[in-house]
Amino acid sequence: MFRAALKSLLGRKVRLLMSTFAIVIGVAFVVGTLVFSDTLSRSFTSLMASTVGDVVVRPANSDAGSEPTTRTVDAGLVAELADVEGAARVDGNVAAFGVYVVGQDGKLIGGNGAPAIGGNWSEAPAGHDLEGLDITSGRAPEKSGEIVLDRATAVEGELGLGETVNIVTATSQGALSAELVGIADFPEGGSLNGATFTAFDTGTAQELFLDGKDEFTDLWVTAEQGTSQEGLAAAVAQRLPTGVEAVTGDDAAEEAASAIQEAVGFLTTFLLIFAGISLVVGAFLIVNTFSILVAQRSRELALLRALGASKKQVSRSVLVEALVLGLLGSTIGLGLGVLLAMGIRALFAQFGLDLSGHSLIMAPKTVLAAYAVGVLVTMGAAFFPARRTSRIAPVQAMRDDVAMPESSLRRRFVLGMVLILAGGVALAAGLADVVSRPGWFVGAGVLGILLGVASASPVISHPFLVAAAWAYSRAFGSIGALAGQNSLRNPRRTTATSSALMIGLSLACTMAIVGDSAKASVDKTIEENFVGDYVVSSVVGQSFSTRIGEQLAEVPGVESVWAQRFAIVDFGGDGQGVGAAEPATMRDGFDVEMLQGDLADLVDDTVVVDEAFAGEEDLQVGDDVTVQLADGDRKLEVVGVFAENPILFFPIVTTPQTLIDAGHRDSDNFLIVDSDGSAGVEAGLEEVVEKSPIVTVKDQQAFAAEQREPIDQLVLMIFALLGLALLIAVLGIVNTLALSIIERTREVGLLRAIGVTRGQLRRMVTLESVVIAVLGAVLGVVLGIGFGIALMHALRDEGLEVISVPADQLLVFLLVSVVIGVLAALLPARRAARLDVLQAIGTE
């Protein structure tokens, strides 16, 4: 039986290899995601290990995974710690984010995603004698006006030694220029993962980032040979004053790497979701392929039963074919997954996450996952067709026509309705956020509904198929009638094929509605709440120098400039932003409506909170909120509750000085400019920000367009990923039609014998394909509209109040489905038209 299964597989290798493509795509997505994720993890681990000393001395309650703050350690500790037993040397470091390099073309380098780092150049060795950044050409900066850049930044900006480099900082100095005197790189390989690094001499760095104080962001203590990090940290800690701590380099590196990996961990989940979608769609293709192939082999299988093969042996022979197919698809998918990982790496390099300096990591778990996923999905998809083979009676081998036993449509309909009901309950529970892991419930609910509709579709779609058959007969005569009847002949096969397309299009329609609704909500919010005449903000979403606002206020025609800043802090274990603005700014610039308390009471170490947040946390005026700022936990008194205001980006708002006192940098994130409407104001504002390309000036329309842009980018990215699922669905239509032509070879020959031309035959096959594609599109659009509206309804409390269904996009989806049907029919129709009439009639 094993040999018979292999011979059967090889005899139909072309048909089965088409199905392999589906499993290859799904496995490749899983492998590519895992390889990219492991590479990302290893790169951050190695990078962080090479950017810390053996012992790091820093202000207490610091976090190596957070942005450097203005909290410092005294420079006098360098000399004091130098004679600690086991210490080889002590070096002081100055570090800050928001130091942007401008290339020769006047555009920013990096800064979008990975940080733009600035600091002093230090010769201090990394922990465990690891090779860190080293100057590979030129020399170290020695005085003000000289800098060192990392090699990737210099190459991207086309900056060479001796050239003047324009730099934009978030400090009070703002923009500055310096001569490039050195280029640094990792001699043993590696990269900054898309971050940029600008190094000054120590005095200049202290002047820029620490207001000229003789202090450091942290100190590195290098261990002597034979001294452990733990022992040296303990010895150093005994010499430290209150408010300063010593941690091992290993702990600091792990802390920083874990924080970054957690921040980008959604990438892995995001990509694995689409791998799952591809596998589900591929499973439909495999089920359909095996169902057709088993049906075509029914006489052969019946003959095996007549020769003494048991039910289990016949079923196992089909599963053996599936096993071989799964192993083959997994192997090809494994290789393709590596190429996909390279593509993912190149894609995210465009968004600032550059891993080009690191080799891809192929872990054993990735190989195991590839074969586990590929084999299990293929075997699972082949299980039900294999099970049906056991119901073939041996006596059927004597008959001229053998039909595979089919399950009851009523049973499938009942199963489908149960799945739809269960999926609807899970979806509702997830969207209502009444369960512990709502995301899982939403995913399970969507999958349940999709599988339920796929199961019940032979009954649900019957009216559509009947209507299509009637329309075809009226529009295309007898050929149209034949195409319609062929679609109705085996509704299971027709709907199973269309279900793959249904899944892809339903998710595409959902995203179209979410994207369009999000943009409509943004437009409505901005239209109703836009204050002032111009908005000034950073193109990379980071802070910028307070000097920008001061210069804008001096532009003729500008009446006032209102500033807001914010910091990402920890609140109850969850990341949460804290905004900061002066009370006068909130009252006169942002039109904040107070529901409780008075803005006049907003002073340092107090906060006002929005009404939704106050309700969630049960906060009243006079309560305390504990927030983990840069210097640790702080209790801030609630002095007011304000109505939701879109200009205030975060639900907790304090004074700017509170953030500054806690160690957050003195810089702005968002400005609103009021003008007297005179001519030339906008030109004057543009002139101020011209030397600072991280900042842009926008009126209401430009601001709305800027807010819509990331939504469009996200939707396009998701459409691109869903395109793979749609490609598998198209392949499914091609495969089904091709196998159907083989199954109906004798019928095709008879049609040709009675006068049907090749053109008419091609038209008949094309019409069948269009029915399948349009059926999938209709089901997908209907489900997509339902999913999209339900999702947007659940998100109405998140500020997405407008539900917009893009009818034009949905119409395009339906028209594209017709094109898909025509294109998918090209090869099967050509094959049908080229069949030899006499040989086709003689086929058994």
Automatic annotation (TrEMBL):
Belongs to the ABC-4 integral membrane protein family. Residues 17-238, 495-682 form the MacB-like periplasmic core domain. The lineage of its organism: Bacteria, Bacillati, Actinomycetota, Actinomycetes, Propionibacteriales. One of its GO terms (molecular function) is transmembrane transporter activity. It comes from the Bacteria. It comes from Nocardioides piscis. This is FtsX-like permease family protein. Keywords: Cell membrane, Membrane, Transmembrane, Transmembrane helix. Residues 273-394, 720-836 form the ABC3 transporter permease C-terminal domain. The chain crosses the membrane at residues 16-36, 270-295, 318-348, 368-386, 413-434, 440-473, 714-742, 770-790, 810-829. The keyword Cell membrane applies. PANTHER family: ABC TRANSPORTER PERMEASE YTRF, MEMBRANE COMPONENT OF TRANSPORTER-RELATED. It is a multi-pass membrane protein. GO terms for cellular component: plasma membrane.
